[in-house]
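Hi support team,

I've been running sequence recovery on a batch of backbones for a student project. Most finish fine, but this one hangs at about 90% for roughly twenty minutes before it completes. I'm not sure whether the input is malformed or the queue is just slow. I've pasted the structure tokens below so you can try to reproduce it. Let me know if you need the job ID as well.

Thanks,
M.K.
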């Protein structure tokens, strides 16, 4: 049974001492990993880790919305990182309006986030890579921005496959369908193992719109809450999704893996 953790930050400080051991644990259980960047340095590290493995480990490169204030976004520097064969996506990118991040100059920071996000969406389409989107307390701005982007770049948006994913999806069913109509899909973390908030949505969503992830080292699923999360634990997300949908875990593994391979072209 093959699984793909579509969002595992093995490039973060939490894994500085044992990143390779963490990756090997996942690969030993036939679990592939997509490692997203949050700034230039972590994006480069994601590629460096992925390059150590012939297959099963891939990188996404991008500037996270909470990492865009201190220095100007360099389109050229990130564009160079897309040339590495192991780079399979632009991410994680997006908007984050949580009060912890916007404790001062709220409108100014929102403006910067939107500008950098838009530049990264343009980069993704120009190099034909999917986007991994982070959205926290910002769907009211996210939807119009993506709608406008899709309209003005329609010649670059693929018609036969999704062009991005809302990672760690936090919205309701109506919001999910708005993103589906834009050609995007959604992904769930270990949150679904200890919260029933998304059960009804997960039951209703078509198979081809779903993926699974860990968001390691965060969002640790039951029965390991309180410990550091890692990619091999994505199996617990798959098991819970199977339970909610009333199907076998093998079935969930089959369609979520197929969706990930299609999105990331791996």
């Amino acid at each position: 049974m093959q699984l793909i953790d579509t969002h595992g930050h093995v490039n973060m400080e939490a894994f500085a001492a044992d990143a390779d051991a963490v990756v090997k644990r996942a690969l030993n259980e036939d679990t592939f990993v997509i490692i997203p960047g949050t700034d230039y340095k972590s994006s480069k590290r994601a590629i460096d880790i992925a390059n150590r493995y012939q297959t099963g480990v891939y990188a996404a490169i991008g500037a996270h919305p909470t990492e865009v204030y201190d220095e100007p976004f360099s389109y050229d520097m990130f564009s160079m990182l897309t040339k590495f064969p192991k780079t399979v996506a632009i991410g994680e990118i997006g908007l984050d309006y949580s009060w912890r991040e916007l404790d001062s100059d709220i409108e100014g920071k929102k403006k910067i986030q939107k500008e950098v996000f838009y530049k990264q969406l343009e980069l993704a389409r120009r190099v034909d890579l999917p986007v991994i989107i982070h959205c926290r307390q910002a769907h009211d701005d996210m939807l119009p921005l993506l709608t406008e982007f899709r309209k003005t770049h329609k010649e670059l948006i693929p018609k036969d496959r999704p062009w991005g994913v809302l990672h760690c999806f936090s919205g309701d069913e109506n919001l999910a369908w708005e993103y589906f109509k834009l050609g995007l899909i959604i992904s769930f973390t270990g949150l679904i193992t200890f919260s029933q908030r998304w059960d009804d949505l997960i039951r209703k969503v078509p198979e081809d719109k779903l993926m699974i992830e860990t968001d390691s080292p965060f969002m640790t699923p039951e029965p390991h809450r309180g410990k550091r999360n890692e990619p091999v634990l994505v199996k617990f997300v798959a098991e819970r999704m199977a339970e909610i949908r009333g199907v076998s875990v093998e079935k969930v593994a089959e369609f979520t893996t197929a969706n990930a391979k299609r999105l990331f072209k791996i």
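--
Follow-up from support: It reproduced on our side and the slowdown came from queue contention, not your input. The longest strand covers residues 87-96. No action needed from you.
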